[in-house]
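Lab notes, practical 5.
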Amino acid sequence: MNGNNWMLKRFFDILISGALLFILSPLFFLCAILVRLSSTGPVFHVSKRVGMWNKFFLMPKFRSMHVSAPQVASHLIQDPDTHLTPVGRFLRRTSLDELPQLWSVLVGDMSLVGPRPALFNQDDLVFERTKLGIHSLRPGITGWAQVNGRDEIPLERKVDLDHQYLRSSTFLFDLKILLLTLWKISQSEGVSH
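Output from the prediction step:
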């Protein structure tokens, strides 16, 4: 992505994330109440993630699992359904648990579109992305891998899709991914739990 596209992307990220944080504030409040009333623990789950240039940042989500759940990628947890809170499954299926990441977009830790940020302990994913230069991208709330399988695709395929995004990254491609994301969310596609 050239300099002009990068500036347009960042402007779009700030504009959309700021507008959505304002417009969706009643929904944020409702989600926070549901999380708080359905289980003990904090409203937000804040995880250490790998950002652009492999620098760590803290990424917030509405907490969908009990506080005792292991701090690993969800697909690595045996029987993850047992760790979900009463409203956790709904939050994940609708992707409402991701809404707090709009703050991460606004402050510049993330973008609306980019590779999903790896957990601090996903060394294999970080290594493979770094080899291909994917680590030079700002991570996103959604991305090319998410609209092509999300939880269902193996690591190698995810890295390949992230690399395709790196090579083809344009503002119009980002818009396509955002539209595909809205479609996938409306169909609850690609969410294994």
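Observations recorded by the TA: The chain has seven helices and five strands. Residues 3-187 form one domain.
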